[in-house]
Amino acid sequence: MNTSIMKASIKKELWEFNGMLKWVPITLAGVFILIPLLSLLLNDIEFSGWLEGLKHLSESQGDRGLTKVFFVATAALFAPFVLVGFIVQLYYLVTCLYDERRDMSVMFWRSLPVSDGVTITSKLLTGAIIIPAIFYSAATMLFVIGLVLAFIGSVILSVGFDISLWGLWSSAQVLSTLGSFWLTLIPLAIWLLPLYSWLMLTSIYAKKAPFLWAVLPIVALLIIEAIVVHYLQLSQPFFGHFIGDYFSLATDKVAVNSDDISSLRWAPLQAVLAQIDYRTFLVSAGLLSATYWFRVNKQES
Predict the structure, then answer these.
(1) Could you tell me if 271 and 183 are in contact, meaning their C-beta atoms sit under 8 angstroms apart?
(2) Whole domain around residue 34: which residue ranges?
(3) Which pTM does this prediction carry?
(4) Element (H or E) spanning 212, and its range?
């Protein structure tokens, strides 16, 4: 596979969805910046109270609870970006092949020396990895801005008020905390690959309303299966159990010690890795093969 063609295909996808992929994370980051500023402006801040609290914080720098608080705060920062990014992913994957058929631009793109396999792969990589990486980057930039402000504040407190917070920087374990979130990017993409593949299949197949095509067949299948299981008195529904078991992050598969920050930090990654098995690759391969077949053989009208 020619890497230059793949890069050009991914750039084309980013160009087509440039507005959404640029302004959604920027707006979300702006909200995170604006809300604390409004809180400071609208509420009366007792500066002496802040200083007393910071002095108490400086005296408890060896407390392991501070490390946990920093991790939870970082998770609270990343969570909205991950959630909104996931919604954008779903929108992109369910429309990426449908839109180009609707406006007939598929005829132009297929006239270029780019194979259908490269097209599908580039769209899958964009939806599964590039888009969440954009939102991870936005959260990281906000994280870095917070660190810069905290550094400036530490300098001011150290020089002007004789309050040293430098010990907090080592106890916070900034790099390992940030790395634990970024390391979930690829495993999450692999774990959710069956979902992404299904959305791409509905995007290439649906003539109208791809969102309904993505949801209604699954809902109909689960309802029909529930009726059959009820009347035939079977033990449990196969597809319902399969979907529920695969997409539920079971905590019993991961040993988490709430007192150990290292265990807590790597728990999300371990939980995702525990869910990846043969089903991930079999289902994804089948759905992507069907998507490729429709891309090659479906006649556009």
Answers:
(1) no
(2) 3-297
(3) 0.85
(4) helix 210-232
